[in-house]
Design goal:
alpha/beta, oxidoreductase, Transketo_C/PFOR_II, THDP-binding, Transketolase_C
Length: 810
């Protein structure tokens, strides 16, 4: 077992002294970074600043117990901690402040996140995993308050899983599950539901997690007393305190932010509890100060009275640390030993200012060189066009007047010059056009890459393996197909686990996991509480640590509880780190064509719009669903797979190659050929569309039916446009509300695939009413598209063009 900080602290006085002075030095460097960072914003070099001044001491203490393999999921002010664990340099801090797009200079996000958002790189350039046990790990920060908490649960749970789960390569992710997940959160953000849901789940699961609450008494301008039922969060959490002999609850430690030795003791104890006993710990750090206020967008003098401001000045952590150092003395072998004199600390202060100024200068010069090099490569080519249009000289003059130039200014100049010389065929314009295309590709990569995986394991690269059927293939309930396929998955991939409400003991509410817990154990097939946000969070955190979690959200309607985490965290992981981290979670859910207000929603348009970065797969039956699971477990993209809720008891032929066959993403399937009209749909609605198509056939209308199967990505080979080219008519049928998923599909077909060129009639969408269905089958019939609706509306298209052949129904 890995030793803890408490067990390693038998050191000489000289080593002790060196550690203290190094902490003081790092604290001063961090503080000077905050001071200079604010000035850089106020002088216009940066857009916005949010800094960690006032939190230096507790973060230094936390860093002392943070080991290789550990993970942090945190608040966006932890710059001192990031410095202390070598995840941040002065140069990279300022590079992020300036939004430098270089991964080398700004490895946390390559300029994609505002300052104070830290991350380490978990992946090699090719998207493969690094050895995460050989480095200290920071999962990429996000701004939504408490949004980092659900992921923290999964990061901690992974350690518990790795105590019993091993697979080829697992040694790169854990050393026998001895890692801790550290979370940090601002005190006011503990008013958020995500905080309570995460802590509750952690206390139930008993995972090695340390949550630090930075309590500075305010949530921007709102005092703590207005945030929660009690001002003291530790008092509120007292009911969570574990009792002797019980395997529930957590440890709660309260400590002052300016008390350096007490902080060291608090974090040593917290580590001991978490690492040796695998229990969650809350460290409530009180009396935190904010020397510069919340951010550069306001002044804390507006809402703090003179007494509070005076107290903050007196109890500044670094000031109190300095006092403690100067007052410290110990007698060793009859000789009084001290840590440092005032002059020595003054020298450290001055050194810190020089280090920070030098780092800022280097970061600014590197960032400016990128701009200067771009100007020097483009401006001469624009100047070459002055003789071809009189306006260009004015554009150049305006550009040269700019005191500070950004990339957008260079692109604006280039595009104005190309616009002014449109229709001109000259070597000079061709040169500029070539340069524009060249630099545009670079900036496209800088600002738009890695929304989805770009590695060899991206889902689009997974080879299609068709389902194999024979004379011996059984006709079984759809649930049996997916269940037996899961059996093969758990056997084939020991790193795969599934968890959700009722997923374990009873094998999920539709029996798609029947018998799996009994066979594979309650670590790999687990029940959870009713807490969708942290079910997703478990998935994100465990996926970030090399496991392959399937997070089950019982019904599609309930995915709304975790949509914030899908949108703000999971969907942006690869993007916001520019390929530095990934979390290939599979979200398993079920829905469509059920009955009743709360079990019949189709929030697909919300998922599509809010979760770009996650694949959205909508199989029409359980065999297709099983194939998508087989596909995604070979991919490093996250995905949501929506199983057909009304398909579990319908008979399907079970493939002979369970666990092996795959359904490709971004590929449609023509399930009925036709020549008069193309009908596009997905999921449970497909069966109704097929019924309608058969009815239309009897009325002399030959309908081609297409199951899109995959909404994101969508029809990568433009096969739907080829169908429309043949039929010249298009109908999109969907159970989402008007303007929802049907609008997305229509845009993809008409705009991206240019299928409008082949239409002889207006395109038609047939969608649900804008309310949710009332209960029972009548609710579905009168709320969502029925076969009658489809037949009548599609028939009306033909009545419009040939009323004699197709007389009106009504």
């Amino acid at each position: 077992m890995q030793t803890t900080y408490i067990e390693t602290q038998q050191i000489s006085f000289q080593d002790f002294k060196n550690q203290i002075l190094e902490d003081y030095r790092l604290g001063r460097i961090s503080r000077e970074m905050s001071y200079l960072g604010r000035r850089e914003v106020l002088t216009g070099k940066a857009k916005f600043g949010i800094f960690g001044d006032g939190k230096e001491l507790p973060q230094l203490a936390m860093a002392k117990v943070f080991r290789n393999g550990d993970f942090r999921s945190g608040y966006y002010r932890d710059q001192t901690f990031a410095l202390a664990v070598d995840a941040l340099s002065v140069e990279s801090f300022f590079a992020q402040l300036y939004a430098d797009t270089s991964v080398e200079r700004e490895p946390a996000s390559a300029g994609r996140q505002m300052n104070g958002h830290f991350a380490t790189r978990s992946l090699n350039e090719d998207g493969s995993w690094k050895d995460l046990t050989a480095q200290k790990n920071i999962s990429s920060d996000i701004s939504p308050t408490a949004g980092q908490m659900p992921r923290l649960l999964g990061l901690a749970q992974a350690s518990k899983v790795y105590k019993s789960v091993k697979f080829d390569g697992s040694e790169k992710f854990s050393k026998d599950g001895n890692e801790i997940a550290f979370g940090t959160i601002g005190d006011a953000s503990t008013a958020e539901g995500h905080f309570w849901e995460t802590l509750n789940a952690a206390c139930a699961l008993q995972v090695p997690m340390i949550v630090s609450i930075w309590d500075d008494g305010y949530g921007i301008s709102v005092p703590t007393k207005n945030q929660r039922a009690k001002a003291d969060i530790a008092e509120m959490l007292s009911g969570f305190q574990r009792k002797d002999g019980e395997n529930q609850g957590c440890e709660i430690i309260q400590v002052k932010a300016w008390d350096y030795p007490a902080l060291l003791d608090a974090y040593a104890k917290a580590e001991h509890f978490a690492r040796t006993e695998s229990i969650p710990v809350v460290v409530h750090v009180i009396e935190v100060t904010q020397p510069q206020g919340h951010s550069t967008s306001g002044s804390h003098e507006r809402y703090k009275n003179e007494e509070r401001l005076s107290w903050e000045a007196d109890f500044d952590g670094l000031l109190k640390f300095r006092e403690w150092i100067l007052n410290y003395s110990i007698e060793i072998e009859g000789k009084e030993e001290v840590i440092a004199s005032a002059e020595e600390l003054d020298a450290i202060d001055e050194e810190a200012k020089k280090i920070v100024k030098a780092g800022q200068k280097t970061a600014w010069e590197s960032y400016q060189k990128t701009i200067t090099d771009l100007v020097q490569s483009v401006l001469p080519l624009v100047e070459n066009l002055k003789g071809q249009n009189a306006e260009i000289e004015g554009y150049i003059a305006q550009f040269n007047k700019l005191v500070s130039k950004a990339k957008k200014d260079i692109f604006h100049l280039t595009r104005k010059a190309l616009l002014a010389t449109r229709g001109t065929n000259s070597a000079e314009r061709t040169q500029l056009m070539q340069k524009y295309n060249e630099i545009f590709e670079v900036e496209k990569d800088n600002y738009s890459s890695h929304l989805y995986s770009q590695s060899q394991w991206k889902a689009e690269n997974v080879k299609e393996i068709p389902a194999v059927f024979s004379e011996n293939s059984e006709e079984v309930d759809g649930r049996v197909v997916v269940r037996n396929n899961f059996d093969k998955i758990f056997e084939k991939y020991p790193e795969t686990l599934v968890f959700g409400e009722d997923a374990g003991n009873i094998g999920d509410v539709n029996q798609g996991l029947e018998g799996m817990q009994e066979k594979y154990g309650d670590v790999r097939v687990a029940d959870t509480g009713i807490r969708e946000a942290t079910i997703l969070g478990q998935g994100i955190g465990m996926a970030m640590r090399g496991l392959r979690p399937i997070a089950e959200i019982q019904y599609l309607d309930y995915i709304l509880y975790c949509l914030q985490g899908m949108s703000d965290d999971l969907a942006t992981v690869q993007y916001r780190t520019k390929g530095g981290q990934k979390a290939p979670v599979i979200i398993r859910t079920r829905g469509h064509r059920l009955e009743g207000v709360w079990h019949s929603g189709s929030p697909m348009a919300g998922i599509l719009n809010l979760s770009k970065g996650i694949l959205v797969l909508v199989p029409r039956n359980l065999t297709k669903a099983a194939g998508f699971y087989n596909t995604m477990l070979q991919s490093d993209d996250p995905a949501v797979i929506v199983e057909c809720l009304n398909g579990y008891r319908l008979k399907e032929k079970q493939p002979d190659n369970l666990g092996e066959f795959t359904v490709p993403v971004g590929k449609i399937e023509v399930t009925k050929e036709g020549k008069d009209v193309t009908l596009v749909t997905y999921g449970s609605t497909w069966r109704i569309v097929m019924d309608a198509a058969e009815q239309l056939e009897k009325m002399g209308i030959s309908a081609e039916v297409i199951d899109v199967q995959s909404l994101i990505p969508f029809d990568l080979t433009n096969e739907i446009a080829e169908s429309v080219k043949k039929t010249n008519r298009l109908v999109v049928i969907d159970e989402d509300v008007e303007g929802g998923t049907s609008a997305f599909i229509l845009q993809q077909i008409l705009e991206k695939q240019k299928a409008f060129r082949y239409l002889d009639s207006d395109p038609l969408t047939i969608a649900a009413n804008d309310h949710r269905p009332a209960y029972a089958s009548d609710g579905d019939y009168f709320s969502k598209p029925s076969a009658d609706d489809m037949v009548e509306k599609i028939y009306a298209m033909f009545n419009e063009t040939n009323p004699q052949k197709y007389p009106a129904i009504f």
